[in-house]
Specification:
Radius of gyration: 19 Å
Strand order of the largest sheet: 1-3-2-6
Structural class: alpha/beta
Shape: globular
Strand content: 15-25%
Amino acid sequence: KTAATVLVEEIEKRTGIHLSITTQALDKKQHIRLLVGIKSNHPLSSTPEAFILTTHPNGNVMINGSDPKGLLNGVGKLLRSLEWSKGSIIVPQMNIASAPNHTIRGHQLGYRTTANSYDAWDVATYDQYIRELAIFGVNAIENIPLQDSPSEHMPITRQEMNKALALICQKYGVQYWVWAPATV
């Protein structure tokens, strides 16, 4: 469901076109199908975070993910491949099977004053930022939750934001790590 929601929301933001999410069979010629679970005979079927993305000349798109994060990775590839403008989407011909080259693809964040911007972000801004990292393939966020004193720019407390970051990561299938200094 998260992958479908990301696809619908990101396309609507950029084109104004609202796609519908349904679990019913579609009669229309053009549709996008998102499926978790690559067919068991495919070499990528047991590879974590893998996807198969196939487009057809009639506009049909199928994304098959080996797991929910693989499906989101496939949605990310589709989003990066579309040609779009206000009111228009062009779907290029693609037949891609892909899996990450590296098991860990992380990014470090810190809701703290020394980052010079993160301390002023609200939960919605972090959600969009982590969403974009996830659709570009990031699978781990390392938070620095304990450094510095509170900032006057922080819209919520550090403790509240740390919890929110963990929930955002969970929503996008991204591991949530905590960095803590090893002090004596």
